[in-house]
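notes to self, project folder thing:

trying the whole complex as one job this time. last attempt i did each chain seperately and stitching them together was a nightmare. two parts in total, labels are on each line so i dont mix them up again. if this works i'll redo the older ones the same way
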Amino acid sequence: MRRVVVTGLGLVTPLGADVETTWSNLIAGKSGIGPITRFDVSDQKAKIAGEVKPADHPWGFDPNKRVDFKVQRQVDPFIVYAIDAAGQAIEDAGLENMTDEEKERAGVSIGSGIGGLPGIESESLVLAEKGPGRVSPHFVHGRLINLTSGQVSIKYGLMGPNHSVVTACSTGAHSIGDAARMIKDGDADVMLAGGAESTINPIGIAGFAQAKALNMSMNDQPEKASRPYDKGRDGFVMGEGAGVIVLEEYEHAKARGAKIYAEVVGYGLSGDAYHVTAPHPEGRGAELAMKMALRKADLQPGDIDYVNAHGTSTMADTIELAAAKRVLGDDLSGASMSSTKSAIGHLLGGAGAVEAIFCVLAIRDQVVPPTLNLDDPDEGTEGVDLVPHHARKREVKAALSNSFGFGGTNASVIFKKVD
Amino acid sequence: MSDTADRVQKIVVEHLGVEADKVTQDASFIDDLGADSLDIVELVMAFEEEFGVEIPDDAAEKIATVGDATKYIEEHKG
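result (full assembly):
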């Protein structure tokens, strides 16, 4: 059977424009959440977000590093983040100089939950104010979700499967799981997989606020607003960015002496069949996804050392936790479970990919990242290590990442250390 | 360089991200400046905005060089 391993990582997040900066800030307990700076929020109910920082910030993002000037002008930010994160992952994996033959066996699976909302908003205003003759000729392909994978394949000449998942906040996890299957099935030897999102714009914030999904009560304390499992939690904080990993067939990676971070051993998928935005109150869909991932991985509950929770800082946190208890045991069989959304907010379609990378890094460094702001744990959290406030060194041989999205779409991915 | 040529050059530099000295009147948008057909649509829109002229599709299709654009604008601007 073909095995699939992770050999490269790339991140653009509110805590850094690369993997090591993001990770060291996360482990240090820093927060990437602050007041929205990109537009006037005076009439918005939610005024805070986890923005990717501008280039002059200590951990800011410089799009000129890896994205052509013309592309930057034509596409929405989520595509810019995806191209940069994919470039980081290729460089990290040492795959910059693939032969034409190798490129035919290398594909891309980078999705987004929403796509180019800022560009749809601004071009709609152009249409209303100036008419159809002023709408940009780049409007369509600069906003389409699969132009993440399209732009990356064009830039790097990758001619393998070109796929793009759209499953709301499960996108990043599904992208990785689907890509791993493509390698297992022999469709490709290398896949760039991940997710990207950037919807911190007036209609994006207003839309989620109107759906009562966002935190609106802590605008004056942005760093405290994302507080998964805490009694005072009151809605998620929107983040933005991208995470992309290089997945590679194990023998292929070994043959070229690649650095191997971890193996993708399990992937579970399910649907809630319940409600458009609310999770099933008993977390049945979440439970099914986790169970399937464990079964595919051929692991026992006690084998999981770390769970990166979906944990959005909403009422759903304790539903996920109850489901995790049913799958792993009342004390999660000793596993630590944390929500890194407490530090970077919810990256929506990018979340599953970024959090998968955190699982991989937890395995690499034998440390689990914290759940910030967990001052007053909610009922039902007793006896579970939710890693409050501070990162902790511990053994991490296998890590599970959960992602759940609007429409009731669930995905769980398990990564395991390769001995 | 005429005022029109100056402003045309500035728009081309801004849109295509090319060096200003490459944007000569003889330069072809596609062959010399790396534009594709959609970039030209965008440039024509920018010229229309900047100079308050209307460049119909059949005229736009004949604009191949920076000089073609400058000439058309000078002949048609109000």
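what i see at first glance: DSSP finds 13 helices and 14 strands in chain A.
need to look closer tmrw
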